[in-house]
Fold:
Amino acid sequence: MSVFDHEAFDGHEHVSFFAEPSVGLRAIIAIHRTGPLGMAGGGCRMWPYRDERAALADALRLSRAMTYKLALLEMPAGGAKAVVIGDSKTDKSEALLLALGRAVERLGGRFVIAEDVGTSARDLEVVARATSWVNRAAADAGDTAGATAYGVVAAMRAAVKRRLGRADLDGLRVAVQGLGHVGGALCRELARAGAQLVVADVDAGAVSAIARELGARAVAPEEIFDQPADVFAPCALADALDDGTVPRLRCAVIAGSANNQLAHPRIADALAARDILWAPDIVANAGGVIASASRGGDERVLRARLDGIGALVEAVFARAERERISTHEAAERTARERLAGAGGRP
Ligand code: NAI
Structure:
C-alpha cells in the first residue's frame, strides 16, 4: 500500500500506523499539517473499514479537511485524524482505548485527539489515562454535535437566501441523510423553524425515533437522493455526492455536516452545472470546532460565532460567483490563502 503516491496524500507531514494485536488495535494517525504551534488537532473515527486502504484514504482526506477548516476559521493549529479499524459497537474495549492513548502519547504532542464518529467523550476519558494529548476542550464542550447542527442551519440559511431568495426556513422542504448526533439535532432545529423533513438512515431505529418525535417522513437510505426537496443535508459519512447520486438530486441547495461530501473535486462542477448551490462542508460543519474552542465561554458569544458561519459561507458563495469557480474551489482558495498568510504550508 503506497502512502506517498496516494491520491489523497497532499504532502502530509506525518502518517503513522499502530498495531496492538493483543487488544485488537489497528489504527492510522494522519497529520496533514502541524501549524505554527507545532501541533495538530483532529477527531478519532472508529469504523469497520473494508480494508486498510479505505481506512488510509479516510484518514488522509479527513486530516486535510481539518487543516482547511481550521485555516478558514483562522485558528492556529494544523489538521490531523485518527482512524481505528473496527466496529465501535462490538470491538471497542477499555484495553483498546488505552492502547490508542499509548499510540497518541508516542507522537509526543504533535497530535491532540478528539472524538468523532464511533468515539465519545467517555471514550476520551479512558484514552486520557494513557496520554495527556487529549482535547478535553472538545469533551468539556459537551454538545459539539448540537453546535455543529446549529452551524449547519446558519450555512443553510445563507444558501437558501442566496439561491431561493427566502429569508426563513418555515415550510422549507429538507431531505436529511444520517440521523446520528448531528443529523438528529439538525432535524430538531429545522422542525422548530417550521421545515418539512424527509429523512433516512441505515439504522432503522434512528429513523423511527425521528419520524415519531418530529413527524418526519421516512424513506429508505438509497431513496433519499431522489426526494423532491429545497435542501439536501448530508449528515452521514463521506462521498454522499458522486457521479451516480448528483444526477438524481432534486434540490436547489446542499448544506450538511458530513465531512468530505464530494467523492472527488469535479463533483463540485457537476453540482454547479445543475445549478445546485453547495455549501462546502469545511465551512458548514465548522460549528463543532468553534464550540470546542469556545468552551466555558459566554453562550451568546458562542451563538454569535456559530452564526458567523453564515457570513463565511456567503463570502465563499460571493467569491465563487466573482471568480467563476465552484464553491468548493472558492473555499479551498480562501483556506490556502489563510494558511499562507499565517506562515503555514498550504
Ligand atoms: P454519528 O455516527 O452520530 O451519525 C452518523 C449517522 O449516519 C448514523 O446514524 C449512521 O447510521 C448514519 N449513516 C451511515 N451511513 C449511512 C448511509 N449510507 N445512509 C444513511 N445514513 C447513514 O455521527 P455524527 O457525529 O452525527 O456526524 C455525522 C457527520 O458529520 C460525520 O461525517 C462527521 O464526521 C461530521 N461531523 C460531525 C461533527 C460533530 O460535531 N459531531 C463535527 C463536524 C463534522
The mean pLDDT is 94. The longest strand covers residues 40-47. Residues 290 and 305 are 7 Å apart (CA to CA). DSSP finds twelve helices and eleven strands in the chain.
